[in-house]
Amino acid sequence: MKRELLKFALFALWVAVIPFALEGSYLLNVMVFVGLNTMLAVALNLLLGYAGQISLGHAGFFGLGAYISGVLTSANGVNPWMAMLIAAIAVGVIACLIGFPVLKLKGHYLAMATLGLGIIIYIAFNESITLTGGPSGLSGIPNISVGACVFDSDIKSYYLIWLFALLTMLFSINLANSRVGRALRAVHDSEVAARVVGVNARMLKVQIFTLSAVISSIAGSLYAHTMTFLSPTSFGFNFSVEMLTMVVIGGLGSIYGSFLGAALLTLLPEFLRAAHDYDIIIYGALLIVMVMFMPGGLVRGLPELFRKARSISGGKNDA
Amino acid sequence: MLELNGISQVFGGVRALDDVSFSVEKGSITGVIGPNGAGKTTLFNIVTGIYTQTSGRVRYKGRDVSGLPPEKLAALGMVRTFQNIELFGNMTVLENVLVGLHTRSTSGLLACSMKMFWAMAEERRIRKEAMQWLEFAGIAELADVTAGNLPFGKGRMLEIARAMALNPGLILMDEPAAGLNSKETLGLAALIRQIRDMGITVMLVEHDMELVMDICDRIIVLNLGNKLAEGTPREIQENPEVVAAYLGEE
């Protein structure tokens, strides 16, 4: 427990000093998105890595948060913090209502149902032109502000978003090592055994699905106020797959793994600009390679790789 | 404690259980035996809410519990173990028992994730209690081992420890001696008696006749989905119909 807290404190410190190393670089802007994607990956990981339930529609919840915040603040002058809260509550209610019937399904069927959900939300963004501006997008969203401080620069957005990302991580780490987190992992390992010892698996799945959607919605609101412009393409099926890739590549059931996955998938396109339109193919290939050779994800695979590399070089020295 | 009234279960065209009735007395050890395919495990699955019977009623502590899901039954104090051991394989031995304490703790999602002081106090309480159950089952030294890596016999003990953590009124064990060596089986017999002496009613399905005859107060014999006989171990051993069902008729 103490070690867990120390680990987190070191990570938070590292996050806090990074901007000094990246001052003036466009990478600081990229790190803002690493923060957002970390939030999303951790949210999805709670559902997929801990409870063992898949969702291919999480970009929809992210989008709902963004659009509810965007519409309320741009056209209706609602305070961004208030809008974020309204969006989170609305998405929570929607997720809860959808979760009850949908989470009865298992495996492929659950994947299909959530896939459908994501697509429906995406189509709604595109078609409700009077509200969302449709394919041409929604602009004029204000930045978030606290008193006189407006979060309008990369450095300010960085600290705002990472504050939320770190809180999400801490919240999730605490949850994972608690009564509720254990019940989630128990449902993942053997649903029948969990039920027999009194875990209400269905209720628990709906709870974690809702929590996961609410965190995604908050990330969406932050995204809207950082970008100040929204277009439906950011919230399509591709992004749901990208979120899933982050979680699996980072490591299922590992909060720091979700950060690694988010960081890799956010930074990678910056280095693969030439392959612009083929990014989804590269993600797919990456996912296959990871699942085949590092099924535990980066967070478990990398230390093992180092150990192997060391034992090989150590063996050479002996000879 | 437990009353079964006219339980029938039909799978497709197969009658797995046909009008089975009996009752289990509080604080007793009741064995359910019968040849393969007699419907023993089906019966257990009905009593513990995993299947819903085609017809008939189950009463537990005087209350009609027919059709209640397993988690509701667990909250009422009915728990079971499985023939092929169902552990939470990726969790530690201690964590497995902690899940067994789920119904006896209350901290919710938000209290847990924000480490509220009452949630932390509860966590300390259930950790202490979980360790006591591990000691009870004789596997305390394995607390931090991943449950999936346990040898079979220890896994069985863990499953019992996890079930006992619920503070149950009735514990159903599906072939608890399966896969155990003779020394482990002796230990199991002692443990089951100890559980009974704590006032907990035990019901078990078992193929190990020596064990059944040794520890059971009453025995129910099933054959082809019907109740063939019921009585004390001695009565069952002397029942010609039971002998015929097991050995085949001349």
Most extensive contact: A-B, 28 and 38 residues
What is the strand arrangement across the widest sheet of chain B? 6-7-8-3-9-10
User: How would the global form of chain B be characterised?
Assistant: globular
One letter per element, helices H and strands E, the order of chain B comes to EEEHEEHEHHHHEHEHEEHH
CATH superfamily of the largest domain in chain B: P-loop containing nucleotide triphosphate hydrolases
Please, what is the average pLDDT of chain A?
90
What is the radius of gyration of chain B computed over CA atoms, rounded to a whole number of angstroms?
19 Å
> Helix segment count of chain A?
14
- Architecture (CATH level 2) name of the largest domain in chain B: 3-Layer(aba) Sandwich
Walk me through this protein's architecture.
- The complex is a heterodimer of chains A (319) and B (250).
- Chain A has 319 residues and is mainly α.
- Chain A has a domain at 27-235.
- Chain A contains 14 helices and four strands.
- Chain A has helices at residues 2-21, 27-50, 58-74, 80-102, 107-127, 129-132, 154-176, 179-189, 191-196, 201-227, 237-250, 255-271, 279-293, 298-318; strands at residues 138-139, 145-146, 149-150, 229-230.
- In chain A, a hairpin with a 2-residue loop joins strand 2 and strand 3 (149-150).
- Chain B has two domains: 1-77 and 168-183 and 196-250, 3-Layer(aba) Sandwich (Rossmann fold), CATH 3.40.50; 86-164, no CATH class.
- Chain B contains ten helices and ten strands.
- The longest helix of chain B is centred in the middle third of the chain and has 20 residues, at 117-136.
- Chain B is globular.
- Classes of the chains: A mainly alpha (319), B alpha/beta (250).
Task: Describe the secondary structure blueprint for this structure.
The complex is a heterodimer of chains A (319) and B (250).
Chain A: H1 2-21, H2 27-50, H3 58-74, H4 80-102, H5 107-127, H6 129-132, E1 138-139, E2 145-146, E3 149-150, H7 154-176, H8 179-189, H9 191-196, H10 201-227, E4 229-230, H11 237-250, H12 255-271, H13 279-293, H14 298-318
Antiparallel strand pairs in A: 1-4, 2-3
Helix pairs in contact in A: 1-7, 2-7, 2-10, 2-11, 2-12, 3-4, 3-5, 3-10, 4-10, 7-10, 8-10, 11-12, 11-13
Chain B: E1 2-11, E2 14-24, E3 29-33, H1 40-47, E4 55-60, E5 63-64, H2 70-75, E6 78-81, H3 93-100, H4 109-113, H5 117-136, H6 152-164, E7 170-174, H7 182-197, E8 201-205, H8 209-215, E9 218-223, E10 226-231, H9 233-238, H10 240-247
Parallel strand pairs in B: 3-8, 3-9, 6-7, 7-8
Antiparallel strand pairs in B: 1-2, 1-4, 4-5, 9-10
Helix pairs in contact in B: 3-5, 3-6, 5-6
